[in-house]
Write a structure and sequence with these properties.
- It comes from Deinandra increscens subsp. villosa.
- InterPro entries: Bulb-type_lectin_dom, Bulb-type_lectin_dom_sf, G-type_lectin_kinases/EP1-like, Pan_app, SLSG/EP1.
- This is Bulb-type lectin domain-containing protein.
- Keywords: Glycoprotein, Signal.
- Pfam families: B_lectin (PF01453).
- The chain has two helices and 33 strands.
- The chain is mostly beta strands and about 450 residues long.
- The strands form eight sheets. It has a five-stranded mixed β-sheet with strand order 26-25-24-32-28, with no helix packed on it. A five-stranded antiparallel β-sheet has the order 27-33-30-31-29, covered by helices on one side.
- The N and C termini lie far apart (about 110 Å).
- The site of one 2-acetamido-2-deoxy-beta-D-glucopyranose (NAG) has 5 residues, from loops.
Length: about 450
């Protein structure tokens, strides 16, 4: 008897050990992908070279890409080979912190997802070591997730957008609450534009080197009650839209969730809706390098030209045309109906070209510069800000005594003053009460 019991114990403990061994193996399906080898053949955004590395779920694929030699971004690509035209980068791990050849993208047995240089230096990670991660998945909506044993997300790529939101992705108070544009095609650093979820509005800002603060050039207040504030902004797409019972009609839109609303009053506000005659589940919203906002849709079932730019927020037919974009007319230019129409010089208006630029004032001494006047123009910061109520002479002396001031804008009807630390695009408004005074050197 005793010996039987003993052997049973041995068998049980052997089983337990074996089971434990199998489970610990299965706990985290670890992987390592190395950034080396040939580049992919297809055309992708930013004219990049890329290497597919990591799991794929149509139409999404994890890749390393580079636009300058030996400086790679780990990103999620959207698009399929047969859909042809440009495949797009819709999420990225390491903006501004590129990695080199032979860098690794790996999921460790501890459940941490890591991007590291070949020498092991960690560049980006999910900080999920020993947090119960048992699985990794790239979901069909483009969300890369780490799961625990109950299927909950321990980490998700949807929580770290940079300039793009996919359908189902949110900006959140207490999380990432803004998008920041990309600097340029070649340069994957933060650009000057940001799309910010604020308590009372959605806002677009332009940050110029010369300006102490980012400048507001667009805002939307729709659907936010007096006592509530924005807590969650989510991009959604559904067939069940308020405009039609037809299933083939889809609505792509944002839903704004607000705090402090009594439950009986609560209905999340829908905004920025766009209707498509096809399933728009695979879409994205982006803050572009030009500071504009756009929706793009992708159709999985289409062979050629599967992409569509379905809406541009600042456009000729909306309340704000492209003249509201700070850099629409380059360094300096007069804009009308989304077009750059003139270069304002001290001697009057001349034809606009990319070379149009205000003469640099290098001296801070008031005796070495003067102002020239433009009538019927506004600066992009004027539309959504109130300026200061003051006399024009005060406005001018404020600019004169501030070396960084490049000129000032004044509305004579309401005595409102704006100091400009950046000129770029001026809009023609045809209103003789709206004046601009541009600093220019005497010689
Ligand atoms: C990358 O690693 C391979 C070996 O795995 C090596 O042959 C190659 O030289 C490395 N490339 C660079 C740029 O270090
Ligand atoms: C907003 O809050 C004030 C003060 O608490 C209250 O009197 C008012 O009814 C509220 N308004 C709404 C729309 O909830
Ligand atoms: C944000 O709003 C969306 C849509 O209403 C909702 O599905 C999601 O759960 C919300 N997220 C949070 C963290 O409140
Ligand atoms: C709205 O946000 C609050 C706070 O984040 C959350 O508790 C609530 O579930 C959200 N409601 C919807 C419909 O998303
Ligand atoms: C819309 O497209 C998505 C993604 O391809 C798919 O999961 C979903 O089932 C489609 N919806 C309908 C109603 O066909
Ligand atoms: C000029 O501005 C004033 C005040 O903002 C406004 O009442 C008027 O309609 C404007 N005129 C034109 C031509 O835009």
């Amino acid at each position: 008897m005793a010996s039987t019991n003993y052997s049973r114990i041995i068998i049980i403990s052997f089983l337990c050990f074996h089971l434990f061994f199998v489970v610990s193996q299965a706990l985290v399906p670890s992987f390592t992908y190395v950034n080396q080898g040939n580049f992919g053949d297809y055309i992708v955004e930013y004219g990049a070279n890329y290497r597919p590395r990591g799991p794929a779920t149509d139409p999404f694929q994890v890749c390393f890409y580079n636009t300058t030699p030996n400086a790679y971004t780990l990103a999620l690509r959207m698009g399929t080979v047969r859909s042809e035209n440009l495949m797009r980068w819709v999420w990225e791990a390491n903006r501004g912190k590129p990695v080199r050849e032979n860098a690794t993208f790996s999921l460790g047995r501890d459940g941490n997802l890591v991007l590291a240089e070949a020498d092991g230096q960690v560049v980006w990670q999910t900080n999920t070591a020993n947090k119960g991660v048992v699985g990794y998945e790239l979901l069909p909506n483009g969300n890369m997730v780490l799961l625990d044993s109950k299927g909950r997300f321990v980490w998700q790529s949807f929580d770290s957008p940079t300039d793009t939101l996919l359908v189902g992705q949110s900006l959140l108070v207490g999380g990432v609450s803004k998008l920041v544009s990309r600097a340029s095609e070649e340069n994957n650093n933060d650009g000057p534009y940001s799309f910010v979820m604020e308590p009372k509005r959605m806002a677009l800002y332009y940050k110029s080197d010369n300006s102490p603060r980012p400048m507001l050039y667009w805002a939307e207040y729709e659907g936010i009650g007096k006592n509530s504030s924005l807590s969650n902004l989510t991009l959604l797409s559904d067939a069940d839209n308020p405009y039609s019972r037809d299933d083939s009609v889809y609505l792509l839109y944002f839903v704004f969730n607000t705090t402090n609303v009594s439950p009986d009053q609560f209905s999340p506000a829908k905004s920025f809706g766009v209707i498509t005659r096809y399933n728009s589940t695979l879409s994205y919203f982006r803050l572009g390098m030009d500071g504009n906002l756009r929706y793009f849709t992708f159709r999985l079932e289409v062979y050629n030209f599967a992409w569509d730019r379905v809406y541009t927020f600042l456009n000729r037919d909306s309340d704000n045309d492209e003249c509201q974009l700070p850099e629409r007319c380059g360094k300096f230019g007069l804009c009308e109906d989304s077009q750059c129409v003139a270069c304002p010089t001290p001697n009057g208006l001349s034809g606009w070209s990319k070379d149009c630029e205000a003469k640099k004032v290098t001296s801070c001494k008031a005796s070495e510069f003067h102002y020239y006047k433009l009538e019927g123009v506004d600066h992009y910061m004027i539309k959504y800000t109130t300026g200061d109520v003051t006399k024009q002479s005060k406005c001018e002396s404020k600019c004169t005594s501030d070396c960084k001031c490049l000129g000032y804008f004044f509305h004579t009807d309401q005595s409102r003053c704006w100091i400009a630390y950046d000129l770029k695009t001026l809009t023609r408004v045809g209103n003789s009460t709206n004046l601009a005074y541009i600093k220019t050197p005497n010689k």
